[in-house]
Specification:
Elements lengths: L6 E5 L9 H8 L8 H9 L3 E3 L2 E2 L12 E5 L17 E4 L3 E6 L16 H13 L6 E2 L8 E7 L2 H12 L4 E9 L6 E5 L1 E4 L6 E4 L7 E9 L7 E8 L6 H8 L21 H8 L6 E9 L6 E5 L4 H9 L5
Parallel strand pairs: 8-15
Antiparallel strand pairs: 1-4, 2-3, 2-4, 5-6, 6-8, 7-8, 9-14, 9-15, 10-13, 11-12, 13-14, 15-16
């Protein structure tokens, strides 16, 4: 959705914080004919209402201070994405689901900044080539551009809906490997901090009182020792799935991800081993990998338990720090 004469943008202030999307739009779109909750709910079903660039799933979604609420007053023309023969590592595939191992640096979905050469373009080519007919891949969730690992794709609308329902009831388990600076306070912990957008900087921040509820379970895998001390390898399992959740949570508890350009810190300067410090400084992306995915197959009910091997850049760094998965 592009912002212009056919769209309205509302930046949520304290007066609208924690209110429902449909209530805010009814109050904040004065002068438009026939703006009712029913009409707004139809806009939401049609994908015409976004929060921070992501389509709103339900009209009862609560808003947080600093979030950007957009509504297209005229339905946008459907976008047609090109199928492109790009490299694609398929971890699992059947007639309903596709799970791929996304490399760091690959954008998941076309945007104005990245209109092609994305994962969706590669999926369109793969599905057309495999079936002999055009298909529409539906990403069940997203990964940041510089996060590697498993991404779940539905081949049909009803499959997407079934997996989305499973995610809503927390029946899909997503576990990440994270290389961080520092050592956690315990071998297993749960971070329960809300996530809000800072109105001044636009960055997401952790808060005990503001924003959307978010929870992450953190388990210590290993800690570097001796001259290579200063790094820890963690397993992070999402209880909720907020934007940048793991990155924000780990930074908030003093365990910033190695290489994170937004929520990290140049803590490599404090490492004693110069080779390890240099490798951390040169990583060029956050050390976060979507490692494991567990769910019940939406069509067969059969358990799926999938893992993605640690990519070369992170594997080399773990080996240098004498850390093992």
């Amino acid at each position: 959705m592009t912002t212009g004469a056919d769209a309205r943008v509302i930046v949520i202030d304290r007066g609208d914080a924690r209110r429902r999307v449909d209530h805010v739009l009814v109050d904040r779109l004065p002068g438009l004919p026939a703006v009712s909750r029913a009409r707004i709910q139809a806009w939401i079903r049609g994908g015409r209402v976004l929060v921070d660039g992501a389509p709103v799933a339900r009209s009862s979604q609560r808003l947080a201070v600093g979030q950007r609420l957009e509504v297209a007053l005229v339905a946008p023309a459907p976008r047609v994405h090109a199928a492109q023969p790009l490299a694609l590592e398929v971890v699992y595939e059947d007639d309903a689901l596709l799970v791929v191992n996304k490399p760091a640096g690959l954008v998941a979905h076309p945007t104005r900044r990245y209109p092609d050469s994305t994962l969706v373009n590669a999926l369109l080519w793969h599905l057309h080539d495999a079936t002999g007919a055009a298909a529409v891949p539906r990403l069940v969730h997203r990964l940041d551009r510089q996060t590697s690992g498993l991404l779940l794709v539905a081949k049909r609308r009803e499959v997407h809906a079934a997996v989305a329902r499973a995610m809503a009831r927390r029946a899909v388990e997503k576990t990440y490997l994270a290389l961080v600076y520092g050592t956690p306070r315990s071998a297993r912990d749960r971070i329960d901090l809300r996530i809000a957008r800072d109105a001044a900087s636009g960055r997401l921040v952790a808060s005990r009182s503001e924003g959307l509820a978010a929870s992450t379970i953190v388990e210590l895998v290993a800690t570097s020792e001796g001259d290579r001390a200063g790094l820890s390898l963690l397993r992070c399992t999402l209880v909720t799935g907020r934007l940048h959740q793991i990155r924000v949570h780990l930074s908030a508890v003093g365990l910033p991800l190695v290489g994170d350009p937004i929520y990290g810190a140049p803590a490599w300067r404090g490492l004693r081993d110069p080779a390890l410090a240099s490798a951390c400084a040169a990583l060029g992306r956050q050390a976060l990998h979507a490692w494991r995915l567990r769910l019940l197959h939406p069509a067969t009910g059969r358990p799926l338990d999938l893992t993605a091997p640690v990519p070369g850049d992170l594997a080399d760094l773990l080996a240098l720090a004498s850390l093992r998965v």
